[in-house]
Amino acid sequence: MFSHSPLPSGQPVRERRSLRALAAATLLPMALAVSQPIALAPTPGQPEGPFYPKTFPADRDSDLTQIVGRAAKAQGTPLYLSGRALARDGRPLGNAAVELWQCDVHGRYHHAGDDGLPRDDNFQGYGVATTDAEGRYAFKTIRPVPYGGRPPHLHLRVRAGSGLVLTTQIYIAGDAVAGDSVLSGSSSGTLQRLTMALVPVTGREAGALGGTFDLVLR
User: Which residues contact 48 (CB under 8 A, 6 or more apart)?
Assistant: First the structure.
């Protein structure tokens, strides 16, 4: 049988310490790789544009298709939008205010002095959702439509309690965007990162669509 020989009693203490230090140095990079989160790429910002509300509607909840006191609902294809607000380290941003504004089915923005076009008086035009503890937000709105040479898009602004702010625009996969004045001045890859795919949703109105978009703040 083989026996394990103990270290000679005369071995210098510093040699044993060196062995322990070597083992620790070997394990440290592995521990850091496990403990350090991968930083998420921040969502690209986009201009606020000229149609941010000058006045806010009395009803500005997260359902833009239904105005309190009106029986009729907004024209257009219902769209259920959801996602999460996150910090770059992946931490969910709870209790953050997510603002959404867009034009109605006629291409007209409400509450922004956008005159000269027909108006859907049953469309709210602007709404706010507050994220939950997991950073989740949700809106009910309509599928955006093109107007004035711009492709269909949604305007979003996120304000987190930590002081983080993001203003951006979301575009729809499959919609033509060539020649858009806003996107033409954006850096490479911006459109891809701001594009959202839409899919049919079940258990909702006929023809309703759904989309998911996470917002990563710097």
Answer: 155, 157, 167
What is the Cα–Cα distance from 146 to 209, expressed in whole angstroms? 17
Q: What is the pTM of this model?
A: 0.82
Model confidence over 44-94: pLDDT tens digits? 999 999 999 999 999 999 999 999 999 999 999 999 999 999 999 999 999
Residue 99 has pLDDT above 50, yes or no: yes
Q: Which domain, by its residues, includes 99?
A: 78-217
- Within a domain: 40: no
DSSP string, 42-79: PPPP----TTS-SS--S--SSBTT--TT-SS--SS-EE
| Burial of residue 68, with CB atoms counted within 10 A of its CB: 0-12 exposed, 13-18 middle, 19 or more buried | exposed
Q: According to the model, what pLDDT value does residue 163 have?
A: 86
Give domain status of residue 189, yes or no: yes
Q: What is the pLDDT of residues 103-123, one digit of tens each?
A: 999 999 999 999 999 999 999
Query: What's the CA gap between 179 and 162, in Å, rounded?
Result: 37
Please identify which residue in the block is written with the tokens 């989309």: 211
CATH number at residue 108: 2.60.130.10
